Amino acid sequence: MKIKITKPDSTLFEGEAKLVQLPGVGGKFEILENHAPIISALAAGDIRIMTPDNAEQIFAIRGGVIKGQRNELLVLVQ
Description:
Blueprint: E1 2-6, E2 11-16, E3 19-24, E4 27-32, E5 38-42, E6 45-50, E7 56-61, E8 64-69, E9 72-77
Parallel strand pairs: 1-9
Antiparallel strand pairs: 1-2, 3-4, 3-6, 5-8, 6-7, 8-9
């Protein structure tokens, strides 16, 4: 799936991922390919991305929102 993580002044990540773990307001949750459409608020914490070649990337955030549909995720963070 395609994912873009962006801050007001820069893009943190843009590329393919097979798994994304996010810090939701009610706790951590994961998104895999073919996930149902989603819009959710994010709390402070870490976003963990697993790329198709099994590399892991972690980004610390202070909060934000996510919108996902048709294997495309847009994450707006602070």
